[in-house]
Amino acid sequence: MKLLRFAGLVFVFITIFQFVNIRFYNGAIFSLPSSQDKFLVSSSINGSTEEHPIRPSSAADLLYSTSSSRSAQREITSSDVLVGERAGPEEDHVLLGSDNNDTNQIHESLAEDDAKDKETLDDLLPGTRSSSSDEKIVEDTDVAYENTRKVEILESKSDPLVDNLSSDVKSFMKVSNSGVVSITEMMNLLHQSHTSHASLRLKPSSPVDQELLYARTQIENPPLIENDPLLHAPLYWNLSMFKRSYELMEKKLKVYVYREGKRPVLHKPVLKGIYASEGWFMKQLKSSKTYVTKNPRKAHLFYLPFSSKMLEETLYVPGSHSDKNLIEFLKNYLDMISSKYNFWNKTGGSDHFLVACHDWAPSETRQYMAKCIRALCNSDVSEGFVLGKDVALPETTILVPRRPLGALGGKPVSQRQILAFFAGGMHGYLRPLLLQSWGGNRDPDMKIFSEIPKSKGKKSYMEYMKSTKYCICPKGHEVNSPRVVEALFYECVPVIISDNFVPPFFEVLNWESFAVFVLEKDIPDLKNILLSITEERYREMHKRVKMVQKHFLWHSKPERFDIFHMILNSIWYNRVFQS
């Protein structure tokens, strides 16, 4: 009888528990992942969308934390290295800017998170694995990123985008016979942007405004620098202005990082793959004690810490060709922070910035984040990229996060016997034209492949780049390509074939001093164009490629003039000239 009473009590308890679980927690307590769930908030996101079907859910469901999570977030100070993030064993190398005590505390908190979030770095880039010692480097990096780039095209990509362009861009494209905005014309647009903001300059109304105005005056009237031991003047549009901007950034810039929102879309840096730039920047900025401030009223800039890769991977429905729910998520996020703070409403977002490397980021952010400073890998001036406001973000492929520098360097000029090299997937309309004109064995000087022939004694992708004079960097579906930075890594002069592409750090770097730009229509004449470059000119460009390389390198701990600081400087520079 006692056993029956006990069983009855247990039954009643289970019934009540299930009612509360379903009624108030949507079955989340002790629930197991269903085969129809793409993810649970506390579980990992696998890189393959096919293995994890989409579970219909609203963007708001993924955006807001529980009350306990929000209160926990408030207790985390901005001096913590990783806010709301997890780093497993693969990510230990990126615990930056902290002493041993800080690092120990971080490891303890991360160990607790690790039980909830089992995502490994290998999951983020399907098809590649690092050995336990991380000594094995995948040489054919082309294969790694080509296989993971999304090939689905959004319907919005086919919409006319002319209404998003400024009148200046429209006039340039109308005057140009090819409809292409040249590097010189891009520079004119940048200058016009700075001039127009100067004419609208208002009297500073706050200490932050005064600091920005002071910085602008200093940058416009810098001390003249003709020679610098660390910076080679011909690489820059104006070395004196760049140096002064950089120095003022180091001394004055303060960034407020919003803590609101939850993983995996927010506060979840992805450190591996073709979109690694946005993840490395997120992690290194949030760990910075130099630039991050806890006091938003002292901030010159406000960072929106979302991952465009995780946004797509988490919310995009395969085959839908629509990014409406991704845009809805970002809108809900902005609604949340603007209802809690007045900083967004005060400026309309013009002092806010985002760093996003996914191909779809421009279309996802152009509606509700149009006034933000957008650091974008897909920097297409013909599709709404605004020179003087937006920043061209380098697309860097990271295969082994513990060793982000990979195998740098290449053969000396005397041993670079191949004139030109390209190998990669036939994405978009341009690459098939390149292959049609120069593929196969048509010309022994032009090594153009859709896939590197696999036979004994053949060079790998990396070996080709290290022993080639000119590395061809054609656009794929979009204007950007990781090959541009890869060419710099392997000291190969990049040949950029991508009309209307704004190259990285355009505000600062004179790309025509170390790279070659070829119009898409001139592909049939590619070899003649390259042969027309004198040996003296080529050697000078090769030397400059080696000198500019340091601006595109990720270090486990940021170094002066590296890619982290260059991204931040371009954002700071555009912010100053909007003031």
UniProtKB/TrEMBL annotation:
Keywords: Glycoprotein, Glycosyltransferase, Golgi apparatus, Signal-anchor, Transferase, Transmembrane. It comes from the Eukaryota. The keyword Glycoprotein applies. It is a single-pass type II membrane protein. Pfam families: Exostosin_GT47. Its main location: Golgi. InterPro entries: Exostosin, Exostosin_GT47. It is found in: Golgi apparatus membrane. Residues 249-531 form the Exostosin GT47 domain. Belongs to the glycosyltransferase 47 family. This is Probable glycosyltransferase At5g03795. The gene is LOC104716890.
